Amino acid sequence: MAFDSLQEKISKSFRNLQGKGQLSEKNMEDTLKEIRIALLEADVNYGVTKNFLEAVKTKALGQDVLNALEPGQVLIKIVNDELVELLGGNEEGIRFKEDGITVIMVVGLQGTGKTTHVAKMANLFKKEGHKPLLVAGDIIRPAAIDQLMTLGQSIGVEVFSHGVDVPVLETVKDALDKASSQGNDVVIIDTAGRLQIDDKLMQELKDLKQLTKPDEILLTVDALTGQDIANVAATFQKEIGISGLIVTKFDGDSKGGAVLSVKALTGVPIKFTGVGEKIEDLEVFHPDRLAQRILGMGDVVSLVEKAQEKMDTELAEKSAKRMMAGKFTMDDLLVQIEQSQKMGPFAAIVKMLPGMGEMSKQLEGVDADAQLRKTKAIIQSMTKSERNDPSVIRSSHKRRIAMGSGTSVNDVNKLLNQYERMRKVMKQLSGMKGLFGGF
Questions:
Q1: Which of 4, 200, 201, 392 lies 20 to 30 Å from 325 when distance is taken between CA atoms?
Q2: Which CATH fold would you assign to the domain 4-86?
Q3: pTM, whole model, 2 decimals?
């Protein structure tokens, strides 16, 4: 994931301040120097890095951090606030019209995930209660029209197209007329990309802008392209004017520094990030949440939102209550595993928890998701009575369960031992609950 290395280095620089009652000027200088190196190694623009650290130092001296009660914490807060400002300040969502149709043009170079993210946005807006219409405006690539048609069908969103033989301006004009007549409140236009920025591409986009007078022009940029993001954004901003960025492949192993640089260099905010290949893998960009993750504070708000969206909360809560009452079965454990799997890879979830940076590092090279799948297979190979009361399982049962789940008898024994330990702990917690009056 982008920023993993940066997060680790910045967290390490602040770790040196922990437990210090006082902060010397040298300690602060050393910490800021480490942050400077971390930012530059993460591919943050040199000028942006310089200005960022100067702002931090000015605020630190202005707030007299050296004599503060908790100097380390105060310095972390200042760095956090400046990171939020660097990333764009307040979150930049889509400015939907209260009445009428909100028109969004999506532009970008070829290969940046433009068509896919048009559909991802439509899926997100539909979940929020909007009625989007997609427009296949990339008539240069017939495959792009087919791709958008397929994606639209998969999410239940209509795609308007006249094919490749009708000029794009005519297609878009007819699409807007249809959206108006059938009550669509959002129109998202997928435009043609090029392998490089050229005059023909820009003129077509200028003509589309003049025709549609869009509320948003969003540029897709690939997180893996590094500093070139700012150059591409600056060119599109100068030529046609853009209102925001969609950063694709944000889940990739990129340094991420360009994302920190782009708002300061171009004035264009990031609005969405693509965090995976699935249609639902699109997130609204929150500068404050990313700043907290970079500083190792986790992202509990996003984790809760993900849980509310993905999990069957009623089923999970019912199972959790049984577990806390010390009455849980293997079926309850299976429910918890299945619900947690809906939220994505285990390592990614751990990173969103405050102070769990070290644990996520320990998980590197450990396939926790494979272990969960193995546990799930073992439970599903048990009979209903065995799941309800694992104490009835004998040696012959274990061999059958191992064979049915593609595991070993040793794996079955490990799960049974873990289950028994969990059951005892839950029983003790249940007793304490009664002891402390339901606290």
A1: 392
A2: Four Helix Bundle (Hemerythrin (Met), subunit A) (1.20.120)
A3: 0.70
